[in-house]
């Protein structure tokens, strides 16, 4: 019964985390991380133990999260908006360099610094989409650009992670050959496997969920065995399934699994946080926040301008990209399993990332909620004399309208 | 099935907002843009962006039923009205004549063929309306009954002659 007890406690804690986050109008990721840290074995109230059950769910959560990201990522849709998004996305890549520079300054070495760069680079689609909807900002021109850049970031990060995976796969040529073999198999699947995927996913819902669960886990394990990062493999599989006509059915069939397992993953990240030693990383967290918020403001603004947004919308674009989330935590947990990294670097990334993510979600949520007011202030600063005259004229026009 | 609405030739930009839905941007001739965001659940968000402005001056949300009703209202006003001048042009030389047969009409009981309607008057019988049904393009062996309404087509003189023939 221990396993069942562990699962029950985990579900109850996740429920409490989701409920609390909703009350505070924050992303549930914040609640899961906070409760994991507070109720975990190193926290002040150790109610949840590190159990094989939570480990299993958390591992599953990692691959399912990446699989769903891949599923939502459509290459066709990306190419659709590639022009402006790519122009802004290329500027946005500077944040990867900024994070890497901070890592180097803290003596992480190139590999650790690159992982840290990845942690701060990717903004959170999950958090941003939710905040855009809640605050009714979806029609703003910068929302479209921001969502496009998020897709660009996902793609860039998959490439970076894949490359890092290849670089750290181990010393031998054998590992590199294995990883290349995986990519070759994937290429074959994309090229020739489409009718097969289409037919296989056309089953009724019960068979569908089992088939998808089996393929995601087994492909992840297989990729790992070949020396290819399992998270990236899950993303690629999601991308391949997204090209079929059953994309939405797969998403629906898997939805409750993703809720539970992704929750377990975030909770698991929290459980591993030793608050005392995480607070030792406070200097790093503050350095990261300062560097990335400043750099993000600049790259967001310039990227917005470069992709054809107005100055006002470009500032908004910079604000919208602030929240980090699931992908940062995924990268941190990947870093934790890379043997080539010194233990103190792994510990630093593991300790700093949840704090950094929570800080950006809090700052981002605040900014989204007061977006209109902040935006109006910034707009006054940027306003040209003609625009000011137009605005005043419009207000006069409105004032002259009466209802009778 | 409704026919395809005429294409008014206004460019609408379409964009996908991943995780949110579809966005349509339509420039207005009076300046500014109409922006419509369609959610997967059918909800429609409408925004008016004034000219030279990145912020909507007005916004509201319709659920699926409300959106359908608005579409009906807009669509109703857009059904092309018949152009009366064109109609005159086409029908200028033609007349449609509706003739109801009383019981004592001479053709009652006789077939269309035996009445030699077309040969003697030049007018064509395009339909017989009988008891709420229409017999379109009646054949020569169809017999006239009292109470039939005949739909005749021809020039003014032809239809007048046909009317005289069937009514006696």
Mean pLDDT of chain A: 87
Structural class of chain A, by secondary structure, is mainly alpha
Helix-strand topology string of chain B? EEEEEHHEHHEEEH
Order of helices and strands of chain A: HHHHHHHHHHHHHHHHHHHHH
Proportion in helices of chain B: 25-40%
How would you classify the quaternary structure?
A: heterodimer
Describe this structure in words.
The complex is a heterodimer of chains A (404) and B (168). Chain A is mainly α and 404 residues long. Chain A has one domain (55-378): Up-down Bundle (Na+/H+ antiporter like fold), CATH 1.20.1530. Chain A has helices at 2-23, 28-39, 52-72, 75-80, 82-92, 94-105, 109-121, 125-134, 141-168, 173-192, 194-200, 205-225, 230-242, 247-271, 275-279, 282-306, 311-320, 326-336, 343-369, 371-382, 385-399. Chain A is globular. Chain A starts with a helix and ends in a 5-residue tail after the last helix. The model of chain A has no long low-confidence stretch (mean pLDDT 87). Chain B is of the alpha+beta class and 168 residues long. Chain B has 2 domains: 13-78; 86-167, Alpha-Beta Plaits (2-Layer Sandwich), CATH 3.30.70.1450. In chain B, a hairpin with a 5-residue loop joins strand 2 and strand 3 (33-38). In chain B, 16% of the residues are buried. Classes of the chains: A mainly alpha (404), B alpha+beta (168). Chain A binds chain B through residues 72-73, 77, 80-81, 125, 129, 132-133, 136, 138-144, 147, 150-151, 309-310, 312-313, 316, 375, 379, 387, 390, 394, and chain B through 15-21, 23, 35, 37, 45, 47, 49-50, 52, 54-56, 59.
